[in-house]
Amino acid sequence: MRVLVTGGAGFIGSHVADALVTAGHEVRVLDAADARSAPGGAVEYHCGDVRDADAVRAAAAGVDAVCHQAAMVGLAVDFADTPAYVSNNDTGTAVLLSVLHEQGFSGRLVLASSMVVYGEGRYRCPRHGLVRPGARDPARLDRGDWDPACPKCGGRLRAEPVPEDAPADPRNVYAATKLHQEHLCFVFGRAHHVPVTALRYHNVYGPGMPRDTPYSGVAAIFVSAVAAGQAPQVLEDGLQRRDFVHVEDVARANVLALTADPPVFGALNVASGAPRTVLDLATALVAAAGNRTPPPNVTGGYRIGDVRHVFASTERARVKLEFAAHVKFEDGVRDLASAPLRA
In this predicted structure, what is the pLDDT of residue 60? Predict the structure, then answer.
């Protein structure tokens, strides 16, 4: 099978490209990064932006499947980042789909989506059952009242694994663009009878992560601190829960989605199924680094666009793709502590 991987020179995309080559597939990469960042010689590399229709036409010609990883990622620094997120993620996806329409594409399409489309995770009130907390209140956050309350009675809630049929509720600009990517791809799939699988990645970590930037995820920020011999700075009380999934497992999920028989339509969580706190991650990275790094510093600060708890139900991916994460948290974090980061 000949597969186009957009964003295939990036962190996740390069692992996907390598996994496809290992599985015996012919791989093309379209990426705006320069060729020195590209995967190995088994991959046909096209340097270009997914928003450039001519670049997409050249890369997509004659492919059997498309794995769309290209995106601007991370939480925006401020709302001024909105045009860049919409341009890279939504316009880029629209251009890709337009070219596939023009070329009469009839293969399958796998989209790199994200757990951020859910906003807050799934919560249950002892009195009112499943409820959806509203937006986080800065006044509550300022006094360190981190966990959302029941919108009906104000009582404590219990977080649960979030399934794919949970209502979407994006809480920041990046999240909104990822949900729109899903909508565009599903519309294309229905109109062209193309199977579309949206893989909702949870918190991906592993070798080749980008160095700490204002747009980095928490794992990259912590690893950069540890590498510099500095204490990881942990927001809130550190007890916010996430599902940290290794990039090798994410790459394998993409190969499964591209080759599943029958194809899988719709969204699938890609996660480890074993949630951890953010403080767990910081503590494990410091331990793996040895005595050269101070312990995590729990700051009590917050970012208004963050959510408190979001971790996945992995049942649908298990049934539809026979996917289960293989890399244990302890093993993955130990390797991550010494793995080189990309510039």
Answer: 98
| pLDDT at residue number 36 | 45
Closest CA to 320 of 203, 204, 195: 195
**Among positive and negative, which fits the CA dihedral 89, 91, 95, 100?**
positive
Cα 42 to Cα 44: distance, rounded to the nearest angstrom: 7
Identify whether the C-beta of residue 243 lies closer than 8 Å to the C-beta of residue 280. no
Report the alpha-carbon distance of residue 37 to residue 80 in Å, rounded. 28
Report DSSP letters for 289-300, one per residue.
HGGGSPPPEE--
Q: 11 - beta bridge partners?
A: none
Residue with tokens 């916010």: 240
pLDDT in tens, 107-159: 999 999 999 999 999 999 999 999 999 888 999 999 999 999 999 999 999 99
- Compute the distance between CA of residue 101 and CA of residue 95 in angstroms, rounded to an integer: 10
Q: How far is CA 119 from the centre of its chain?
A: 13
